[in-house]
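Regression test case RT-17, inverse folding.

Input:
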């Protein structure tokens, strides 16, 4: 059985003795029921991971001693920024979780005309922090040592502006002529190194004609993902799986 993995904001250093964050301590003590001496793996999101051992544990706190560092990297050469129309409640949580497991590099929640959930101000900040925590938890599970950024929600124009330096820009559109698989096959040929891709997906009701035109002005090319119309919380992970299988690391 592999050692439980925990995200700790850090920065971490060898031989340091640190207190785990409250949520992590509760998980270690109440859920995993670990005892002093138990092995752990820690990561701080900056790359690589650290061996560690539980030193003390009670109902309210847990101390660990940090051991050796390993520079293991499980990131894909595809650096995909997912511009995701905001979905309702648990759908967005599941989307962030699965996108993280599938190697997304950044998630930009996009407020669109048909978004059921509208977020502003402090509420937007809280939701962004919640989604970031979902991404951290997904990294603990899947073995990633770099946590994808989940930005605060942006409108479509601001979201498109945020990926201005990204050369490949695709949006999922059921009526598109070109399949996403064909576009992904075209990125296999470049030499090894990161390949930056921006992927735009609408909310439950899809993007409006005006939003599709706006995305086109920002250089987004429409792509289809098979003959069926997928839910917004399915489309992102499905597209990421296609990209990783064809041009990324799912075949490694």
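Golden output:
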């Amino acid at each position: 059985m592999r050692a439980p993995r925990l995200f700790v904001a850090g920065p971490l250093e060898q031989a340091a003795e640190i207190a785990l964050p409250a949520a992590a301590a509760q998980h270690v003590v109440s859920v995993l029921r670990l005892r002093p001496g138990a092995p752990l793996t820690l990561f701080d999101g900056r790359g690589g991971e650290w061996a560690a051992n539980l030193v003390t544990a009670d109902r309210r706190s847990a101390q660990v001693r940090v051991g050796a560092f390993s520079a293991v990297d499980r990131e894909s050469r595809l650096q995909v920024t997912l511009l995701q129309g905001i979905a309702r409640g648990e759908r967005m949580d599941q989307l962030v979780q699965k996108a993280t497991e599938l190697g997304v590099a950044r998630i930009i929640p996009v407020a669109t005309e048909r978004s059921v959930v509208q977020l502003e101000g402090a509420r937007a900040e809280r939701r962004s922090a919640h989604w970031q925590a979902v991404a951290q938890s997904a990294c603990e599970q899947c073995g990633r040592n770099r946590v994808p950024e989940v930005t605060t929600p942006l409108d479509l124009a601001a979201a498109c502006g945020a990926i201005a330096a990204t050369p490949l820009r695709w949006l999922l559109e059921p009526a598109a002529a070109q399949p996403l698989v064909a576009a992904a096959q075209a990125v296999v040929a470049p030499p090894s190194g990161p390949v930056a891709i921006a992927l735009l997906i609408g909310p439950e009701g899809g993007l409006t004609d005006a939003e599709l035109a706006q995305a086109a002005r920002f250089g987004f090319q429409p792509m289809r993902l098979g003959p069926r119309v997928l839910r917004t919380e399915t489309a992102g992970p499905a597209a990421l799986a296609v990209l990783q299988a064809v041009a990324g690391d799912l075949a490694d």
